[in-house]
Amino acid sequence: MMEFSRPWLLLLAIPVGALVWWRLRVRSTEPVLRHACLDLVSDAPVSLRVRARRMLPLLSGAAMLLVVVGLAGPRRAHHSETVKGRGIDIVLALDISGSMRSLDFQPKDRLESAKEVIRDFIEGRPHDRIGLVLFAAKAFTQCPLTLDHPVLVRFLDEVRVGLIDDGTAIGLGLATAVSRLKHSDSPSRTVVLLTDGANNVPTLEPETAADLAHTLGVRVYTVAIGKQGLVPFPVDDPFFGRRTRQVESHLDLDLLQRIAERTGGRMFQATSTDMLKDIFATIDKLETARYETVVSTWYRELVDWFCAPAAVLVMLEILLGSLWLRRLP
What we know:
The chain is an alpha/beta fold. It has two domains: 2-30 and 46-79 and 298-322, no CATH class; 83-293, 3-Layer(aba) Sandwich (Rossmann fold), CATH 3.40.50.410. 39% of the residues lie in helices and 25% in strands. The protein has ten helices and 13 strands. It has helices spanning 13-29, 48-54, 57-71, 110-123, 149-157, 170-179, 206-216, 253-263, 273-286, 303-322, and strands at residues 2-4, 74-78, 81-86, 89-95, 129-135, 139-146, 189-195, 219-225, 229-237, 241-249, 267-270, 290-295, 298-301. The strands form four sheets. A six-stranded mixed beta sheet has the order 6-5-4-7-8-11, sandwiched between helices. It has a three-stranded antiparallel beta sheet with strand order 1-2-13. The protein is elongated. The protein starts with a strand and ends in a 7-residue tail after the last helix.
């Protein structure tokens, strides 16, 4: 929205308008032909050039009005305001092992259901820096901590099973997520760990990663996705195509409980998309460190938008008055 830094200068438009009116009156009454008997030419039509020359002062008048607007300091402003929100750094550690393709979260599999809920969680916390870590047999950072949530969501959309070797390295995934928060100065640092299995990659013990999180003051919420026992799982058969069969699902709930207790967090289990949404809603309420900050105002000056056309109008009046609309002696 446009505003003016010196709006009182717009009052100069009044004398400018009066000057243009006076110039038009003088030009319209000033005789341009001296003759002993004007009745001879009283019926002569007024030519286009004569009409145009009478209106010539309008060009300089418009230019002066544009200059007045430019002197008033037109600018487009983003006003300063005090913003209250939640200033928390959160890293989401998401399991992308093969078992996340299980279909007990119908109509979607576990991974797609988790992505849907995480997407809503990200959109609901616009003032938090959020990062994304993926893990299976290995772990890597899909997106570092960022306030650019549209970019984070695009990274989330690219997540799929098979990006890394299959397995469930819970300890390595947790340690990678905690390392993203090592240099954070946020009043609250949090990891949300989502997995549907048990640690089966002996690279780093989950308890050791939990001790690291505790030392750095990082709180960990663990979320077990799925249920114990037989669950439907898609299988690609070379002869019969994709079909579903029952496979055994094992979640190490005791391990996830120990990790959460060691770091001051909580453990949850979701066996449906609705339960997963409720869990993230609970986490959203638990992580409510408040902050207050002032967003600075910045301006984009628009003087050139008015002064440049004013110069063009002045030059146009000079050229027309010297050439096509010049006044003969």
